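User: Predict the complex.
Assistant: Input components as received:
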Amino acid sequence: MNTQKDFTHGGNIYEIQKQFSIEKEKILDFSANINPLGISPMVKEAIINSIPFQQHYPDPDYTELRESISEYIKVNPDDVVVGNGATEIIYLFFRSLQPRRMLIPVPTFSEYERAARLSHSRIRYFPLKEENDFHINAAQLIKNLADVDALVLCNPNNPTGQVVAEEQLMEVLNFCESQDIWVLLDEAFIEFVDEASKITGINLIGKFKNLLVVRAFTKFFGMPGIRLGYGVTKNYQLIKKIKAFKEPWSVNGLASAAGVAALKDKAYINKTREIIKREREYLFRELSQIKWLNPIQTYTNFILIKILDEQITSTGLRQSLIPYGVLIRDASNFINLNEKFVRVAVKDRESNTRLISVLKDYRREGI
Amino acid sequence: MNTQKDFTHGGNIYEIQKQFSIEKEKILDFSANINPLGISPMVKEAIINSIPFQQHYPDPDYTELRESISEYIKVNPDDVVVGNGATEIIYLFFRSLQPRRMLIPVPTFSEYERAARLSHSRIRYFPLKEENDFHINAAQLIKNLADVDALVLCNPNNPTGQVVAEEQLMEVLNFCESQDIWVLLDEAFIEFVDEASKITGINLIGKFKNLLVVRAFTKFFGMPGIRLGYGVTKNYQLIKKIKAFKEPWSVNGLASAAGVAALKDKAYINKTREIIKREREYLFRELSQIKWLNPIQTYTNFILIKILDEQITSTGLRQSLIPYGVLIRDASNFINLNEKFVRVAVKDRESNTRLISVLKDYRREGI
């Protein structure tokens, strides 16, 4: 397992614009897993209305925003700490707890590792198996938790799209609680899952004091440019520690107003769930019919795909699709993946159809 | 010198709203040093136009923003690193360099100390003398730099309003260069100074490789809610170190668009300089005529004031003015200041007149 990988992410349409002279507005970006509905009109309006108020500092306690979030996820406002994207909360978890040894199931989102390394944690990988569709097995995971101070679970997992089932999660959390192991449970994509309320760790924060659940507005509310996320825990000592390390006003006032409005737009929330469910099924079915591709079963808004053709690499495929205005995620820089994996977001029907057609053309032409 | 002080800042109108049931929109906030013109109409328009694009991640390199900044301050785009307010750059300076011992002239902005402590730096204070209007004396400062790894200079200094003259700055920088001492030069308020171009360290980055100049959009462009600042240095090793610790996308896309637009609005920039110059003189003159107050000479957009009346404390004065809808900064929590100091921002004529009238009433009534 090659662990010398870079931390490049998807969604960098600026680089594509520079390299290929394609206007960034014309790129169909399947490389970032963002709600295809775009930003809710209610969010847009809230941002516009809040502009004049940005001549003041943001509320250092973000009271209104924390209250909105706590209503949305049905917890106490004191259980919530907001951040500049989920990313800030992830970094604060490591900075404030300084775990000596970390277990990270891989492949997964690379910022956990970067954050852990900057806080001098030692990393142990738990390689998920391709033959099991990268599914996490709780019993196997627990066997690898000896001498570990913190565990990261990304649920659903990026880039595999897999979820940890409720009973399996309980098993892991029970073990971690008994061994004083901190758990960072990243649910950045959970709102795209059909029965999210059954698998979320938010319901478990009362039971497990070593649990920090992280969520983001980025993906589900289609606003990665706005940078807003939050952490949820009943461990007020942990919140105190996080606040001791938190830089003041890291969430800007426009993002705060956007967040409050986003959670109110129930029509947008319902429509998103509907579209993603339908399009996930459509895109998966269509990808399955392309013989040289093997899409891996997913529960969320992106699909990890194995390239079966020996002649085609992830890097080559990504590069070849750019002139068509289609950007996919070369997944080879995820630890425990290789040059045979790419990831695509589930977008709207028109975009998904375009992706399928470009993929079909690509192999037909044998470029 | 009492060094056990809290890190509370001005500008928290949310707390006032809660405590006094005054709508935050009705508070005249002299406690935060923000351009009274509010946000430039060009900035407002740029934010609105950029909202739809926030369905993409920000450019991780912030190329357009760095180019705008580099044109504005006449440096190379590679010399610029952008941050979530100047605050992020300040924290990154300490996190990436981990200086063992710091010298901080006091009183000054408290986040330097907080950032230094979180990076395990040992702090030495250099107390500025009230009898010299808290002016920095270069020769005295240099005498205190033995065994120090990093120096912070806030120029103009918050909360004193004093500047370090060009020759004095050169003297300090030359000494620091010779002794391998890092210098963090915070110029968050420098654009309010009449002859800023003569005292800025930006012109010196080519000469001093141990120098990081920090600037903010917050104050001069009247947008503290938007969170945007930057660091400038010719030391590319330092920029590399800072980037190694920087969290991705910490500046949101709306802030980035706002920054580009702000620097283009030359009318706003000129009008601000004009108003601040005129109002600084007006407010200083009026304050000087109040017998129980002693305003300290200032070069920027705020005034530190000593309370001469033995019966009146900074805390008491601040509390008493709130019911009038006027919020001033109790400066007693600055290290090397005490219960006899308050700070007020220079605002527009109407607000400044109101402040003066409320202060005059206060003592007349003997509340």
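Chain B is about 40% helix and 15% strand.
Let me know if you want any component modeled separately.
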